[in-house]
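Entry 14. Ran structure prediction on the chain below.
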Amino acid sequence: AALLRARPVAGALEVGERMLAELEPFIYRRYLDFETLGQLRAMKHQIEAELRLPEMVRRNIKLGYGGIRELEFIVQSLTLIYGGRDPRIRTRKTIDALERFASYGYLPRSRAEGLEDAYLFLRNVEHKLQVAAGLQTHVLPGDAEGMRALAIRLGMGGSQRSLARLRNGLSRRRELVAKQFRETLAGGAIAHERRVSPEAEVAWRLALEPAAAAPALKSLGFAAPEESVAHLELLARGPSHTPMSLRRSELLVRLGPVLLDEIAGLPDPDLALRNLAAFISAVGARTSFLALLEQHPATRRVLLRLFASSSYLSGLFIRHPEMLDTLVRSDLAQLRRNPEALAAELAELVAACPDFESRLDAIRTFRHQEFLRIAIADLAGNLKHHEVEAELTALAETVLREALKLARAEVGARFPIPGSLALACIAMGRLGAAEMAYNSDLDLIFVYEGGEDATPGGHELSARIAQKLIAVLETRTREGYAYKLDLRLRPSGNQGVLVTSLEGFREYHRQSSAVWERQALVRARVVAGDENLGAKVEAARQEFVFGRGLSPDEVQEIRLMRERMEREIGAEDKTRLNLKQGRGGLVDVEFVAQMMALAHGWEHPELRRRSTFELIRALGSLGLLSKSDAKSLEDGYEFLSVLENRLRIESDQAAWALPTDPAALMPIARRMGYRGKGAPKFLLGDVAARREAIRRAFERCFEAERTRPR
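Output, structure tokens:
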């Protein structure tokens, strides 16, 4: 901490600068150093002990309560913790540091300005005290006359009102500093923070005795206690390759029972303990990490909830422990990010990479970190379902656009790309509707225009760019993949060419497209590429989708297609339900929305929407659906979508199968907020009721539309 403000002032200045540059990795450590934070707190307590008398603690404006030293500790602590990963906040000056904390999201602006005001005021008081005494003193006068003299030196006057104003000003500012000091250096004996259950205390004491620990874990609600015993032992002992230090042993005495108690209350205690043990093994049970868990209960609970909800996200943490920044700062992080800011950040990261492979890794790391931010906010209950969809959609669009830029640049490095060649990416499905779920594929169509004067021609160049884009997103690197693509909705499906000319796109949908292809275009949206070409594609889409209504035969064709999907894809049995393709599933609602948009969008502009939610609401408002059917469809779609996301977040792949076995269903039911031994039964009951209401509304809607007079 002392080196944070070090600078060369005499002698060979360049030698001093070189020395500080070499020490920079030691001063600004890349990983969060919460053990250092504990040492700062211990130093502060030592200073207070040296002051001895409470009276002196109150009167000393530098070393005492809410004083200058506490404010400096706030600045130094935040700089030590975050300066390793964010060079923008590195500065020797206290006021400058506070301004940077506010600018880059480490402190709220109002709090930073309040601390700046307190620092300047306390420094002014300190100077006036020292000028009067001719000594280096920081102690306020103990009598009224001395305080009145100080008020006069500060230019506040010598009246009783001036004296009161001085006392109030000191009190208010020191309270603010002390409050921020407590928040920054929060902690203390964790055992006193919350009451730990006797079962958790017993289980922790038995952690190194597997035969005795298993029954204790079972009493805490662990479904597989015999398996979980090994993870508990690893947590208690630490990895075999890491010796147990005295400091870590002391931390675990306090922290272990609390961890077990909190894990026992999570949706899937076995998964949480397994992922926590794997993480501890990966980071080597660093004392600083355990100190973080002790001193930041909110961070600890978010991390444990994540470990109980997703093996995929836990795996990200295990591979990238530096992502703890995202958790620790989750209270300061924006729940909703501006798309322009997202794009600028990713572009900056990619531009800083020296080669193609590192650019791929940068894209994936960015995607994983943002995915994590969204999931944390979702699991904490800070985002509504439609907000989760919007954030996931914005992330996918940002990555897709940057990937297209990279693909075009890579192809352009080998083949000249004429300015006349335009390429547009059209999103279909959930990306097109801006209703992305966790780990949704990106359904895309590629349309190009121009470039025929080039060698190779526009079609071949566009195909090369599209193929490179697929590689940018799907290739597995050490950071995994970014997104999986689904290109089957292009004209002529898998038998069609990868990229389609604008004229070919128009001609196909005028002459050859089936009703299901027209239906798929309801959610189509240009999300990347040339804007002028995108506008032409959108104009063509509007004509194809909303240029006319549906005949009774076409309504029936859509219904039969849904029945075929249910029969061939949505097969269910006694062991599982299909939330998407099964009877009364998500696709029922989507088919109602899309069929009605095709049937009535030509005369009702309000139905020229892509979002399933928005279409159902609009249909209800227009009276094209009864209020009860609109509510059943809307409520059921949201319920099943949230449940689907709780399934999807567990792994890095799409998931629609809901198990019916109570043991397998229990963690899912708990993630959905159900409690008690009957949680699986109650969840299945609600799923059945929602799906039945959806199917009844589906049947009424299709039958009414097929038979209505035209």
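Strands lie at 422-427, 442-449, 485-486, 499-501, 525-529, 576-578, 657-659. Will compare against last week's run tomorrow.
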